[in-house]
Design brief:
By secondary structure, the protein is mainly α. The chain is 53% helix and 6% strand.
Length: 192
């Protein structure tokens, strides 16, 4: 990852440096600000698994009133550092995701029908967007059976997270995000 020029922002530790680096990737004008629409992406890049309510809370807490929809690094950095230190928006471990799938698989067959899963994750809890649904289903569904063999799916996610580690992942004890962020949103829908 590129080393950024921090000038007036001095990250105090590795955590703050990673947060600042991720933020500055999305700073398209070089003025240490990002559009509020980038906040969810930055949080997910960092390995967080925020709900839309979480993203809106971060925006509300870090957006300057007169900023015209931008967030400055000077407000974002301490706020997100505190959230991470408190283990907020942390991904669910694979064991919890497996448990969530098993709740849905009441007959213990080892799979969930695509149609049933689609209905759940688009209508219950915090619904997936069409893009999130397509991204998850492209990996999760066995095209021959139209079913999700969930243990295989979770193993694919874990292998992907080892093969393509996220530099910015702030939760090293859990698999990094990718499709896992969407799967964690499914976990939240299942157990809320």
């Amino acid at each position: 990852m590129t080393d950024f020029e921090y000038s007036d922002i001095n990250p105090a530790n590795e955590l703050e440096k990673r947060i600042a680096d991720a933020f500055l990737i999305f700073d398209h004008h070089g003025n240490k600000t990002v559009d509020v629409r980038e906040i969810g992406t930055i949080l997910r890049f960092l390995g967080c698994v925020p709900t839309e309510a979480d993203v809106n809370e971060v925006i509300s807490a870090t957006e300057f009133e007169d900023s015209n929809g931008t967030v400055h690094l000077s407000k974002f950095l301490p706020y997100v550092s505190q959230l991470v230190a408190e283990h907020k928006m942390e991904p669910a471990p694979p064991e919890k995701l497996l448990k969530a799938f098993r709740v849905l698989d009441q007959e213990g067959k080892g799979f969930v029908d695509k149609e049933y899963m689609t209905k759940l994750i688009t209508e219950e809890g915090e619904p997936f967007t069409v893009e999130e649904l397509e991204e998850m289903m492209a990996v999760a569904v066995d095209m021959a059976t139209d079913k999700i063999a969930y243990e295989l799916y979770l193993n694919q996610l874990l292998v992907s997270s080892v093969s393509y580690p996220s530099y910015a992942n702030l939760y090293p004890t859990n698999p990094p995000p990718c499709f896992l962020a969407r799967t964690n949103r499914f976990h939240l829908c299942t157990f809320r």
